[in-house]
Design a protein that fits this description.
The structure holds three protein chains of three kinds. By secondary structure, chain A is of the alpha/beta class. Chain A folds into two domains: 29-153 and 298-375, Response regulator (Rossmann fold); 157-284 and 380-405, Response regulator (Rossmann fold), CATH 3.40.50. Helix content of chain A is 42%, strand content 15%. In chain A, the strands form two sheets. Chain A has a seven-stranded mixed beta sheet with strand order 7-6-8-9-10-11-12, with helices on both faces. In chain A, strands 2-1-3-4-5 form a five-stranded parallel beta sheet, with helices on both faces. In chain A, α3 (88-101) runs parallel beside α4 (113-126), α5 crosses α6 and α11 (318-337) packs across α12 (343-351). Chain A is globular, with a radius of gyration of 23 Å. Chain B is mainly α. Chain B has a two-stranded antiparallel sheet. The two termini of chain C are 13 Å apart. The chains are: A alpha/beta, B mainly alpha, C mainly alpha. Chains in contact: A-B, A-C, B-C. Chains B and C meet through α4, α9 and α11 of B and α5, α6, α12 and α14 of C.
């Protein structure tokens, strides 16, 4: 009985494949004459929801615009979005559903690092392209995999390089104190900074203090840092913790400048910290923050507000912008791949992308046959008069990361 | 460690301990009133804080916002008791515990959808720069927290000892059947207990909002509050305060001397130690021997 | 009796057919259900039958998962040995909870288990060189006697283990140990009067629950391939308690039913996007209000009529 079922399925599949339009070979999953199926996933429930919701909304807005302008080579983009609840087990469920049930052509990943790493083996096995917009875990691009690409956020070691260079060369500091949370991303930032201070400048931080997520008091760490007498304090954690730590530091008389991780470089941190945020510097993942008064960003913000009128405060956030820009990168590559859109032609098109960006609101993306890290640039910023403004500083040291791809 | 650092650590420890104390107090009430471990109590604190946020955004002055928040919170507590707790009152104890967990999940998810995980620091008239006590510094908000907690405790002790409703609550928590036989309207008492718990939780949220900020995960403090209540002894209001302060100080010193990892473990080490050695805590009633 | 058997045959046929007819997503879901069944059976024996509250069941699962994972990944030990080793280690550590259980009950015991959970979580994060800490641990595909366990092979293995676990659960439930558990739950004094040592019984209950949890954890590593501490936190423990509360406390089939429904529910709610948590909580609440003794309790009268003689659904 089972044999007859299988025979029927085989014949039916054969008929469908034969009927696929313009197919010199079997049609690619998720691509039809007039549509391309994109599968996206990320956390839209739980504490990381602000990342996935923004990822989804930013990507959806890009798709809407692209479709309105005629689509990609006459094909409309359809996005199916699945929640991963910031759990690796659920992320794997989302990916399996998207690839096997929804039969998408390409995966657009707006999930966190742990969820992403959990799906890598399966995605590699399936051979389908996964474009990772947010996750910074090195496992996406090292070891190298033909079908995995990294877009918006750069790799963790790159943070370390840029932070070290900025603090030593830009802020002219030799004595650096680090205060980092014992959570994946802040810990990575802190470790990367420490490593590159050592390897590039031969400096060790004068004090490395840690705190736990959810800590409400930083007195022990601040007193310890004070004793070590740093010139700059690097803080890696969440905006809520940063706000409390900054306030307590000033209360206890620790008045040295703060350098913060990328999670703090947004409006939410400014709202939480208030006046103590003045003078704080850090790197932004995008050249212009959503609340910037730059005309290009204002125009984008207006478009966004028209599409999403009733959203919570601090939306759009940086993830909205990142996902929007990265979806355009993916679309551009699909456009270059032409009518014969397959995973192979998409990979080829991506690897030939050079300095592409949708506009001044994004950093440019470049991929090569051996390097799938699209972005190595972060934008240095500082809080001036209650707003994050760009700092005219450029990195001069070439990245070590590129050396591993030779 | 210098004298200045040691004193500052003590002061900061008491400050963070005051946070634990007030949340522990809000946890001790439902226990004292109905012997229920309310897994949603953390979310009641969060709910109260967000009610305060909404009222403040409507421009209500602080003196009006506070009682309004407490009233709305109390009404929410009553509603929860009527809609969620009463229908499952006969079921095994676990069912009620899981129901409070489900309730907490709903509240947290709804808050998250509307406000996302932004953190808000509520303005308060007493919030301001740190006060100087010699070379030491203390943020005035903590002083307000500890003062409020003290006054509240005194009021509650009077409530439980002197008022009819308070005495009825104690009777019901001790033995609901006997209480009913004595003519006490047990359902009314349960409703009042939930209303009271919600209001005190809201007060805790209110007091915490200017100093540690509110976000949907505020309810996580309930774990530290539980430990504080265990140290002091469940059922003892003063014990909850003492437990909170002691926990804050111990945590802070551990962090300074041994780093963040040990700081994270020490509350649970204390918890397990106390439960093994003296489960009723310092002032609680001796638990029934198993 | 006949209806009972027919249902089991249908379910069994379905279970066997999954890897043939199902997509990789569907196979994966069923594997997760089976893992949850194993964990839930252990928890139900401890809490539903023996009356001991445990908030640390997820961390016992974590111990099993990390032990198995470390043995296969860092020490290249075959999965066939790593899995039982994980069960063994978890059982030992779980047995340690028997000591506080001797003297505490109810809320106080729950808090001890909470303390245990947090300590395990912190330990995993702290020894990050070994466990990967908060960055998690990515695992190789498991091998059984040199053959990689993959898709259908893995599925049938998990299915087989789950069936054995159900059988073991039923067996324990109806054994003198199961009766001892029930006695201790009802009343320690009565148990003592019946010459049942309450302390040792509780110890046994915690050990058995830990064994099941460790087994579930080991299976989890093979099925998911990636573990991190957040998969085994307090919400995970509470979710496991919902499986048995909704399915039916004290009933092995209740553990099965609860696991099936509550593992599928979040997946079924995917269409609700960001509202899925709200709906999940609401449905859970409704289930508890409508069926306070669990689904099994709701259908017990039905089965009594069908079963003709089976006074209690095991």
């Amino acid at each position: 009985m089972l044999g007859a079922n299988k025979l029927f399925l085989a014949v039916a599949t054969g008929l469908v494949l034969a009927a696929a339009p313009g197919a010199a070979h079997a049609a690619e999953q998720g691509v039809t004459a007039d549509s391309i199926a994109i599968g996206a996933f990320g956390p839209i429930t739980g504490p990381a929801a602000y990342i996935g919701l923004a990822g989804r909304d930013g990507a959806a807005m890009a798709i809407k615009e692209i479709n309105a302008a005629g689509g990609i080579n006459g094909r409309k983009l359809n996005m199916t979005f699945e929640d991963d609840g910031h759990s690796p087990a659920r992320a794997l469920a989302a990916v399996k559903k998207l690839v096997d049930d929804d039969k998408v052509f390409v995966l657009f990943n707006v999930a966190g690092s742990n969820g992403t790493i959990g799906t890598i083996d399966y995605v590699k096995e399936k051979g389908i392209v996964m474009y990772v917009s947010f996750a910074s875990a090195p496992g996406v691009t090292w070891p190298f995999a033909k079908n995995l690409f990294r877009g918006g956020t750069t790799e963790v070691p790159r943070y370390g390089e840029l932070y070290a260079e900025y603090i030593v060369d830009g802020m002219k500091a030799k004595r650096i104190g680090i205060l980092s949370g014992r959570e994946e991303y802040p810990k990575n930032e802190g470790d990367a900074l420490t490593r590159h201070l050592q390897s590039w400048y031969g400096i060790a931080p004068v004090k490395r203090a840690e705190f736990n997520i959810g800590d409400k008091d930083f007195t022990p760490q601040i007193l310890g840092l004070q004793e070590a007498n740093p010139q700059v304090i690097a803080f890696f954690g969440n905006p809520a913790e940063a706000a409390i730590a900054l306030r307590q530091a000033r209360e206890l008389g620790l008045n040295k400048p703060f350098f913060v991780g990328t999670t703090m470089v947004d409006q939410g941190f400014l709202n939480a910290a208030g006046p103590v945020a003045e003078g704080v510097s850090g790197f932004a993942l995008i050249p212009l923050l959503p609340d910037s008064s730059d005309p290009a960003m204002k125009a984008w913000h207006a478009k966004w507000s028209a599409d999403y009128p009733n959203l919570p405060p601090n939306r759009p956030n940086i993830f909205d912008v990142l996902a929007y820009s990265d979806m355009y990168v993916l679309a551009e590559a699909m456009r270059h791949a032409g009518n014969d859109l397959t995973t192979a032609s998409l990979i080829n098109a991506l690897e030939n992308l050079h300095d592409y960006r949708v506009g001044p609101i994004a950093t440019p993306r470049t991929f090569t046959k051996i390097n799938h890290i699209g972005n190595l640039r972060l934008q240095p910023m500082q809080v001036k008069h209650g707003e994050w403004v760009q700092v005219p500083w450029e990195s001069k040291r070439p990245s070590d990361i590129l050396q591993r791809y030779h | 460690m210098t004298w200045r650092i040691a004193s500052q650590l003590a002061l900061s420890g008491l400050s963070v301990g005051s946070i634990y104390a007030i949340v522990a107090l809000s946890l001790a009430i439902p226990f004292k009133a109905s012997r229920v471990l309310n897994f949603a109590q953390g979310e009641l604190v969060t709910l109260g804080a967000y009610i305060a946020l909404v009222l403040t955004s409507y421009g209500l002055p602080y003196a009006v916002m506070v009682p309004a928040t407490l009233l709305i919170a109390a009404a929410s507590g009553l509603l929860i008791e009527r809609l969620v707790v009463r229908p499952i009152i006969g079921a095994p104890e676990f069912t009620l515990v899981i129901a409070t967990f489900a309730l907490g999940l709903i509240i947290r998810a709804l808050i998250r959808i509307h406000w996302q995980d932004n953190v808000f620091f509520l303005p308060a008239p007493y919030a301001g720069p740190a006060l100087a006590v010699g070379p030491l510094r203390v943020n005035p908000s903590y002083l307000v927290i500890i003062a409020s907690t003290g006054i509240l405790t005194a009021l509650l002790v009077l409530f439980f000892q002197r008022t009819k409703l308070g005495k009825a609550m104690r009777a019901v928590s001790f033995d609901p059947t006997a209480a009913r036989m004595m003519g006490i309207r047990v359902n009314t008492v349960f409703g009042s207990a939930w209303a009271l718990s919600a209001a005190i939780g809201a007060l805790a949220g209110l007091l915490l909002a200017p100093v540690i900020g509110i976000n949907p995960e505020l309810g996580h403090l309930i774990i530290k509050a539980l430990i504080a209540a265990v140290i002091g002894g469940f059922g003892s209001l003063g014990g909850a305060i003492f437990g909170g302060l002691l926990l804050g100080v111990l945590e802070t010193y551990t962090g300074a001397l041994f780093g963040a990892a040990l700081k994270e473990i020490i509350p649970f080490a204390i918890l397990i130690a106390i439960l093994l050695v003296r489960p009723q805590g310092l002032w609680g009633a001796t638990p029934a021997r198993v | 009796m006949r209806a009972h058997r027919i249902i089991i045959v249908i379910v069994a046929a379905f279970a066997v057919a999954v890897p043939i007819l199902g997509s990789s997503y569907q196979i994966y879901l069923v594997e997760l259900i089976l893992i949850n069944i194993v964990a839930a059976i252990g928890l139900n024996l401890l809490t539903g039958n023996c009356g001991q509250i445990s908030l640390c069941h997820a961390s016992l699962m974590a111990i099993g998962a990390y032990t198995t994972a470390l043995l296969t990944t860092r020490f290249a030990i075959t999965y066939a040995l790593a899995l039982p080793a994980g069960v063994f280690v978890t059982t030992l550590l779980g047995a340690s909870l028997g000591y506080p259980a001797r003297r505490l009950s109810g809320l106080y015991l729950a808090l001890v288990t909470l303390g245990f959970l947090e300590v395990v979580s912190i330990a995993i994060e702290e020894f990050s060189d070994l466990t990967g800490g908060v960055r998690g641990l990515k695992l190789e595909k498991p091998e059984l006697a040199g053959f990689p366990l993959h898709t259908a092979g893995l599925y049938y293995f998990v299915l087989a283990v789950a069936i054995i676990a159900i059988r073991a659960g039923l067996g324990l439930r109806h054994s003198r140990y199961g009766r001892a558990f029930d006695a201790v739950r009802q009343s320690v004094i009565v148990a003592q009067a019946l010459a049942i040592p309450p302390g040792r019984t509780k110890l046994l209950a915690f050990s058995i629950a830990a064994a099941f949890a460790g087994l579930a954890g080991g299976l989890f590593t093979a099925v998911v391939g990636f573990i991190d501490p957040t998969e085994f936190d307090i919400s995970a423990s509470l979710r496991q308690i919902t499986f048995i509360a909704v399915g039916g406390l004290g009933s092995v089939w209740g553990s099965v039913i609860g696991s099936v429904i509550l593992t599928l529910l979040p997946e079924a709610l995917r269409g609700a996007d960001e509202y899925s948590d709200v709906l999940y909580g609401a449905i859970l609440l409704a289930a508890l209000v409508l069926a306070p003794t669990g689904i099994v309790g709701l259908f017990a009268p039905v089965f009594r009529r069908l079963g003709g003689g089976k006074a209690q659904l095991s």
